[in-house]
């Protein structure tokens, strides 16, 4: 049996997009482990240090949809390749940074490259795989993300300890070069299903500024400056909506959100999911080390349970969504996540560690069932000419949900603990924060189940 050119093309696209899907979360999670070392070398205060991480997220969120739309018009492979180049070069520059502000700048540029990758990788996979194979392919891509998140903290820790934090950025360069080489050697086809349409520059600016204000506001709650930023974001959202409903070729087709129920509710489900789950690892890391007295290595071994389970089951879940309507598979995943979060609301200082691990297994399995089918639902619900926008929109929901999840934790900490450092002396209010947060996350996921079910069928 010979392999047809179409099948070869699909495999090449899947390999290239999957390698890139591993690259970006690995870098992000590995750098987070290195933040204390970066702070020591550059004498950064808490705010400056937070910018090392948040500048990357901000840039990614700001440019996801605009670059997705640009790729629909001018070529997804072109923007994807440029994104990998920018990501790789900025990683080299970050490794050579000689000051905190310089590192923050290069991290922001790295986020722009990440936006180009996120906004086009899934769109390229969707462009070449038929609908009956799409879920499995997207599942492979999602698995790469989970693997990057899993090994990033461990490998990042060892690299930082033995080769300094700069080695984290340097390790990404060979993979970036390899991806670029494979694109130029094997990938000849281009995908630009909206070719000939105009790129909406004013709408892109309004959108980026709106996301910047919203995410900045989330990260600074409950301070007045955070509230003010959210108000500015709301005003910019109104301006963006007014412009997009009047321009001929909008960067974001508003009817996608107002009349395409499957697209809108699938994105809402993704936003709710990440809002309710992203901060779980952060909270449990503090719980295991501050309350239970475990060392960072042991705590990390416990926490890695969730992403490992996600990586194992993401591809089978995607394959399942090729056979069963994604709304049912994703909704089942959201229900399992709800159960896992509900169990965490009963955490005490004496909860057996195996029970914590069991909750993480539930969360990992639930997230695997949700992520690939939900991605499949989003991409299947739109026309080919909007694959880049859909991919960018879904990634924006993920990034915004991450920031919202941390914002919820920040507000609760501010109300119940204040500015006191989290240590064994504040165990009682910390446990109260844990209970309140997990109750909120559980309630969010209940709404997420209904949003996931309400999307309806995405296949005829």
Task: Report a brief summary of the structure.
Helices cover 81% and strands 0% of the residues.
Whole-number tally of structural domains:
3
Assigned CATH architecture of the largest domain: Up-down Bundle
Estimated structural class: mainly alpha
- In angstroms, what is the radius of gyration? 21 Å
Reading off the top of the CATH hierarchy, the class of the largest domain is best stated as Mainly Alpha
Major sheet summary line = none
Helical coverage, percent range: over 70%
The SSE string, one letter per element, is HHHHHHHHHHHHHHHHH
User: Number of DSSP strands?
Assistant: 0
- The CATH homologous superfamily of the largest domain is termed MFS general substrate transporter like domains
* Unreliable residue runs: 1-5
- Mean pLDDT, rounded to whole units? 84
Distance between the termini: 32 Å
Shape: globular
Strand content: under 5%
CATH fold call of the largest domain: Growth Hormone, Chain: A
Enumerate how many helices there are, as a single number.
17
